[in-house]
Amino acid sequence: MAGPPSYKAPTGTHDVLPPQSGRWASLIARFAAAAGRAGYGLVVNPVFEDVEVFRRVGEGTDIVRKEMYEFEDKGGRRLALRPEGTAPVVRAFVQHRPPVPWKVWYAAPGFRYERPQAGRYRQHHQLGVEAIGSADPDVDVEVVALAWRFLAGLGLQRTILLLNSMGDPESRAAYVEDLRAFLRGRRAELAPEDREKVDDHPMRVLDSKRAATRAVTREAPRISDHLTPSATGHFSRVQAGLSDLGVPFALEPRLVRGLDYYTHTTFEIQSSALDAAQNALGGGGRYDGLVEALGGPPTPGIGFGIGIERVLLACDAEATFTVGDARVDAWVIDVTGGAAARALTHELREAGVAADRGFDDRSMKAQMKAAGRSGARVALIVGEQEAASSTVTLRDLATSEQRTIARADVVAEVRAALDKEPR
Ligand code: HAM
Known about the structure:
The protein is α+β, with helices and mostly antiparallel strands. It contains 17 helices and 16 strands.
């Protein structure tokens, strides 16, 4: 007879387990703190939306056209798992009309049916912010600087901030025409997969990582030559503001990014510690037409998304922000049936001491082994003798020194022992 089926996480997805998950949690906590200090509040959106929410913002992109997880629910609604975080936030803005500027952050999954490889998954996770309702170039500066400082604060050094402006819709339309004409003239030289994009989505061609296409796009017209005076003014103020804050950047006139909604400032933070095809740790930009596209009044906005998995890969490569020590401080060993361990772990935890224990009434030897494996600094041992005399044996797991203490003094004694030699 066949055994039970064996299931694995779907292709392109992964489980995040301890101790790695400790690092994951502390990354999110750091981001929450940084965003909170800058006045951003947490937003939690549904993981799925009406498919049109995404179609409206990215009709011309692979992310929406080819990679979206779309489905019909039992009520016949067409829904999609969120491929990214901006459209749901903007949809929520239009629905709830909060006062502006509306500044929010999120930590949420994104789903894209991509070819999985290191740093590219079908479910990934982003840390992001969106600031909606102000066209002030200082908002651009705040948002870009927040992303940059957050990554720098993790100890990442092999990073570069690329900056570009897509201009206003006017600048962009003039540029798209120019680019299309250029690419039509060189179509035969492009990688075959990119040729079909020339007529409808010429900007997507600039995104291509294929060598043949890159050779052509190196010579393509630049958006920077098509900016209107007001778009140029906005972009100059963003650059000056970043320089004032000491945020280093490089201008990259061919940075178009994979989504359609960008206007004015766009940026990407890349890591040279990762493979070139997946070297973007994060990116974002302005999307001054997006609120309107989703049915709201004309309202500017800007934000970014940072990929958690990629940031952690880059941290691994640079040996920084290493796996946190998720050890407990105290381990309770009880060979009298378990009731003493139950009471002691409870008391210690209530007093703020990280404490754990074994279960299943195992032998002294097995429990000692578990205590050693746990990484705890002290063990509290309750045997028949201790139970009878209302005492506990306190053992330093590093030095193996041990002494008898009164049951009533456990919390104070453990605290004193932990204070003696901070980790
Ligand atoms: P994005 O550049 O598509 O932008 O994604 C942001 C970041 O998410 C990427 O730089 C990358 O680190 C990570 N990422 C994206 N797709 C994957 C994947 N398949 N596997 C692993 N990591 C991935 C956006 O999504 C925009 N919503 C950012 C934004 C916010 N723009 C304005 N506001």
